[in-house]
Amino acid sequence: MNNESRSRVLCVKCQVPLEEGKVSIAYLSNTFYADLLRCPLCGQVFIPEELALGRMAEVEKTLEDK
To answer: How would you classify the pairing of strands 30-38 and 45-46?
Structure first.
């Protein structure tokens, strides 16, 4: 997703543009930090499909195999 597209992503609940910021992601008692789009009002985080099906899926599999 390019920068122009990112600036147009709106929070469904609040109807305000999402802002990029550091968020924590927890899975199986492990916490990771990433810069993702999030709503400045309610904190809802947007995880792009390519990240969810790519890198995050790889990390989940690695942690589950431990």
So the answer is: antiparallel
Going from the N-terminus, what domains does the chain have, and what CATH number goes with each? 3-65 (3.10.20)
How confident is the chain (66 residues) per 10-residue block, as mean pLDDT?
A: 63 96 85 91 90 73 69
For residue 62, what are the CA distances in angstroms to 2, 8, 23, 30, 46? 29, 33, 21, 12, 23
Q: How far apart are CA 42 and CA 3, in angstroms?
A: 22
End-to-end CA distance of the chain: 32
45 is written with which tokens?
């985080």
- How far is the C-alpha of 61 from the C-alpha of 45, rounded, in Å? 22
Contact assessment for residue 37 and residue 20, using Cβ atoms and an 8 Å cutoff: yes
